[in-house]
From TrEMBL:
PANTHER family: GUIDED ENTRY OF TAIL-ANCHORED PROTEINS FACTOR 1 (PTHR42650:SF1), TAIL-ANCHORED PROTEIN INSERTION RECEPTOR WRB (PTHR42650). Belongs to the WRB/GET1 family. Its main location: endoplasmic reticulum. The gene is GET1. This is GET complex subunit get1. One of its GO terms (cellular component) is GET complex. Residues 1-4 are lumenal. It comes from Orbilia ellipsospora. Gene3D superfamilies: Helix hairpin bin (1.10.287.660). Keywords: Endoplasmic reticulum, Membrane, Transmembrane, Transmembrane helix, Transport. Residues 172-193 are cytoplasmic. GO terms for molecular function: protein-membrane adaptor activity. One of its GO terms (biological process) is tail-anchored membrane protein insertion into ER membrane. It is found in: Endoplasmic reticulum membrane.
Amino acid sequence: MATLLILIFVLACVWQLSGILLKLSPLFWKLFLKIAPSQASTDVDKLRKQQAEVLRIRKEMTTTSSQDEFAKWAKLRREHDKRVAELEKLSEEVASQRQKFNQVVSSCRWLIFSLAAAFIQLWYRKEPVFWLPRDLLPNYIEWGLAFPQAPRGSVSVNVWSTCAAVVTGYVSKWIEAKTTRPIPAQPAAGTAK
């Protein structure tokens, strides 16, 4: 019984931790690009090269006078516009691939934890997680805590997993609120303190 209680609580905690780790998805995306050779990694390489090329052309355009060397400046301008259009298209493709990656990771997370929770709830549906003291609560509340198939007077796996998920969710939100501090507003220029 105690192992079941701890197992369900650990599962709920790991679910919340994996949610926090998903907020680090840019790290996972970079790791994915380095580890798995794919269309996404080649597109990201092209995007970086394209960005460098656009910056080079833009720098060259700023050093060229549009009045004195108009032909050279116009040629650079056309090339710059063409490269920027290609860059935008490539950037949209990479963003789409990144969104697909995030969806796959989130779906896998949900599927793994949902299957694990469903298996535990199905396998241990008749097992009590822990027993309540006799005559502590009214009969209908004991029935609700034992729902669906645990013995009356105990807490079922379904109820305990729901409680553990809610509590870990609240604790996670509380920790997140305490660790993320709002950035104080800067006073406007010229105002006296």
